[in-house]
Amino acid sequence: MRKNLSKIKISAEFKGFPLSAHGQRISRFLGEKPNLFTSEFQFPMMVLKESALNQNIGRMAKYCAERGVSLAPHVKTPMSPQLAQRQIDAGAWALTVANFAQASVFLNFGFKRLIIGNEVLEPTSIREIAKLNAQGKAEIIFYIDSLAALEIVEGAVADQDQAELNIFLEIGADGGRAGIRDLKGLEPILLKMSKNSKFRIRGVSGFEGAVPDGNRKVAGIKSLRKFLSKIVAAAEIVAPYMKNDRLIISGGGSSYFDYVIEEFKKYKGDAHLILRSGGYVSHDHIHYENMYPFMQLGKTQQFLPALEIWSRVLSVPEKNLAILNFGKRDAGIDLDNPLPIKIYSKKIKTLKASIQQLNDQHAFMKLTPGTIQVGDIVACGISHPCTNFDKWRLIPLVDDNYNVIDLIHTFF
Fold it and tell me: Domains in the chain, please, with CATH?
């Protein structure tokens, strides 16, 4: 994987890279030991910090290992085989993706065990998954939450000789996303699958992050635990239908993985417990930072924000307003605006300011008069990493001195 990616040539297709690097292979560019501030990068540029990345991957791996649960990180967040390999190397049991198109990316990079955290109803995708499983080329699990969906899946492989389908029964919360609401709906689906030798029932799954009123307040925690206990109750219904496979109970675990584990541990039988946390790999400065279990612990025990978007100050048209040269094309704002955290002008200093508005290519930053000059370079942290990685096809991985030590590819 690394050898092939390192042969790719840097070009204008990858925004922000030095003009002098265009036409160079990545391996040659990295051999020159570039630095974000002294190697003529063209801002804006999003970077990924190696120290934070390593801490986050190691912290989550250790947390899961200490509690006897497995991790199948949701790699839809960065869509990066390089980062996925780091997570596998740290002990991840599988990778989670959102659909078969994403699964295909990781299959092409040699990853074999994948959870599609969703229903799959495209007949061509179903047939390909069934064939890959049957031939032993992959182990792909996906969701079913209704008889209607089951009939579509059955129909897709009805005439296919080589077909094996690994299935999670998805459990949902009222007002949330997909998933079975009433557990009485489990039995008809299980009975029908048990009569078809092409199906392997693997367990139950749900996403507690979609519970409409779930949060870390008293009432929100109660709602989360109620939903998680529903998944455990579903596991008890599914268990008698298991054949030679160990029952899997899986939860999302993005922000509430402590509650997920506590509730899943109440299952009285033998089960393989799996978290599918994804955002932890890069964490953020606002959304996850205000929700996850480690936020009250010391810095060495926390997840650390790994993503920063550096941009140039284009104008200071008013004494308390600066215009930066990044916008919605460069940063996701599905939850919060980016947060200014640092400024570079010969050296790095901390910065207290706020982004009030983003246009396509501009950010409006409110600041203390006199703290910013035209031409300075400003770093912003982000909220909710899922809608930031997709803006960048090639991301510098930097050390704490902003030396570029690798380039991370994304495949959206």
Answer: 2-49+302-409 (2.40.37.20), 51-281 (3.20.20.10)
Which range, of 225-234, 249-258, 261-270, averages the lowest pLDDT?
249-258
Q: Which residues contact 80 (CB under 8 A, 6 or more apart)?
A: 389, 408, 409, 410, 411
- Where do we find the tokens 């047939």? 127
By C-alpha distance, which of 296, 294, 310, 312 is closest to 374? Answer: 312
Q: Which of 119, 142, 118 is nearest to 130 (CA)?
A: 142
Residues 6+ apart with CB under 8 A from 136: none
Token pair in block for residue 38: 């002294």
Give me the count of residues in the chain: 412
> The whole model's pTM is what?
0.95
H helices present in 121-167, as ranges: 123-134, 147-156
Confidence of residue 290 (pLDDT cuts 50, 70, 90): low
- Tally Cβ neighbours within 10 Å of residue 354: 12
Q: 């997840």: which residue's tokens?
A: 303
pLDDT in tens, 197-252: 999 999 999 999 999 999 889 999 999 999 999 999 999 999 999 998 999 999 99
